[in-house]
Amino acid sequence: MNIVTLLDMVASVDPDRVILGDSRDGLTLAQLRDLADRAAHLLADHPGRPLLFSGTASSAFPVALFGAAVAGRAFAPVSYRLAPGPYAELVTDQLPATLLAEPGGCAGLEPGPDLTLCTPDAFVSAARAAARTPLEAGQDPEAPAVLLHTSGTTGKPKVAVLRHRHLTSYVLDGTEMLGAGADEAALVSVPPYHIAGVAGLLTGVYSGRRIVQLPNFTAEDWVATASAQGITHAMVVPTMLARIVEVLERTGETLPALRHLSYGGGRMPRPVIERALALLPHVGFVNAYGLTETTSSIAVLGPQEHRDAVSTDDPVVRARLESVGRALPSVEIVCRGPLGEPCEAGTHGELWVRGAQVSGEYAASSRLDEEGWFRTHDAGWIDAEGYVFVEGRLDDVIVRGGENLSPGEIESVLLQHPGVQDAVVYGAPDDVWGEVVVAAVVRVPAHEVGVEELRDWVAAHLRSSRVPAQVRFLTEVPRNDMGKVLRRVLRADTGTTPAVFS
User: How much is the pTM?
Assistant: First the structure.
């Protein structure tokens, strides 16, 4: 099965349903399918080459994705936010290829026998003008459909391979065909080079939910667009939601049309989601956890679970606001120790996952074991009810005097302090302990919380070994464009940025 088959199915049943853009003049399912065929003709000259896409979330994104699928070419979105050097290296590594990029976004790359260049808008215009001969998309489920580059917060990005069977399994297992109502619209503000952008497009098309794209996120534009377009569904990353909450608090906007808001891609501070739940009581919030290599979400914390957690005095249930929920029915998630042994409920270890949507494959190799399990390299634990708690990357675990400390556990406590707006915890080398705990904190404006107050706060909630040895006050935590903390930047600056030592 090919991902374009998903489009074929819905376009054959409801061809005139608007699927992209404004409800009055947007692109219909039939028009999108037609453009995919026309785009495939433009790509037919080099069937084995990947189609690199370095554009924002615009109409060119779905046309290129489905056009590549019809033409039998892998679709490879590339971050247009990369610096020129890494960008050119990433493109060069995948030659020969076709690259859709803005004129100023090619990092000096020149067209030649191995590289065809075109802007996204010109590609769509050429597709509209091309002669249309209906094409049959190949149905090999093992053919590569999408090549995604891991975020690369440390080291060179790897190319994750998602085959047609991974993507179609993800969509078919969790989405009802044309299940969206005629009034439903989804606001997409994550970029095409993120798995959430690809998965959101495919599930939106298959459900028939109109997709409204926001190419460049600002909280003000997000709120204005959601209000003007009657947005009912949206997906954001935690840093986006924090800024949206600030705009809602400042403006008094209530977004009455919004029904469903999912978030993921990073750790959600409990105070942020608690404020969002209070501001938008009519909205169903969903926390979704997944990786590029797992074709997006593998666990979710649903709307009722959010409501139950925020309305209870039971600390165990309340703590579930910091979980990512339970595994989807189509996948298995387990926690294992350093030797691969199963962990008991509540015991910290590494999260492993398997299922039909799990790729676990990179351009050079597969990371699945002989039983189909994929090591996420995420530290975490699973409680007795199956709720999954993600504590961050295994590489971020702090080893202090032989004891493994979870940065996420300490961050959660710091973020509950009324004077803390943002916090990141990481390890710094130490001659005595091996590593010590460092807390980088952004204070709430006009709240001059001090070092000892924060140390006492952590000590009152956790064991003494978790108390930060160093506290740094920052104006902003460094993050990449998907909201993931750049701990390597903080570690590199630890010796040069002013810090307060205990």
Answer: 0.86
